[in-house]
Amino acid sequence: MTSDLFTWELARVAGLTALAVLSMSLLTGVALRTGVLDWVGSNRVLRSLHEYTTVLWVPLGALHVGALLLDQTARIRWVDLVVPFLVPYGGLAVGLGTLTMQVLVLVTVAALFRRRMDSQAWQWLHRLSYLAYGLLFAHVLLGGSDAGDPVVAGLVWATAGGLAVLAAARLIWGRLPA
Fold first, then answer.
1. What span, in angstroms and rounded, lies between the C-alpha atoms of 13 and 175?
2. Of 34, 64, 107, 124, which has the highest C-beta tally within 10 A?
3. For residue 42, is it within any domain?
4. Which helix (H) or strand (E) holds 101?
5. Residues spanned by the domain of 147
6. Does residue 178 form part of some domain?
7. What is the pLDDT of residues 38-70, one digit of tens each?
């Protein structure tokens, strides 16, 4: 296996794993506030899974980005991590990935300071997770060869569908108290 093939495969695996982890994080986060999945386990179990997956995306996302920086085919540069849509290879998809990463970093850093923040400010920053998932959804669908894979497409669409169902349940039955 060549080094280019290795970095490309590593980027794909890390990116897809980060997608799965972020999907679990969002689904458990919404489920905590709707009570729809109370039958799955206690809120403590869902909260633990939510918090664990929220932290787990960081090394997976860093591995994904790091592998892409080393990959000679993608030609992602350091500036592309800051300024979206500059890269010539897959500019729209990579730019959406850059925006996704930036929003997720903002939400993650805000989570570290949650106890020192006004609760309304935290809630609005935390809700940016939905924007990040929307950007990630588009990044995955536009970004590569894996979007056509039935397992990847199933994960992406099932998560989007699950979020829609949980959001509808929350609208219909209301929000659980904190």
1. 36
2. 64
3. yes
4. helix 91-112
5. 3-173
6. no
7. 666 667 888 888 888 988 989 999 999 999 999
**What tokens were used for 86?**
């500059």
Q: In the prediction, which pLDDT does 36 show?
A: 66
Lowest mean pLDDT among 35-39, 53-57, 83-87: 35-39
Q: Residue 59 in 3-state DSSP?
A: helix
Classified as helix, coil or strand, 16 is helix
Q: What is the residue-wise DSSP string for 113-171?
A: TGGGS-HHHHHHHHHHHHHHHHHHHHHHHHH-GGGGSHHHHHHHHHHHHHHHHHHHHHH
In 3D space, the residue among 28, 27, 26, 32 whose CA is nearest the CA of residue 176 turns out to be: 32
Q: Which residue's entry shows tokens 């892409």? A: 68
Looking at residue 6, its amino acid is F
Select from 163, 109, 156 the least CA-distant residue to 15: 156
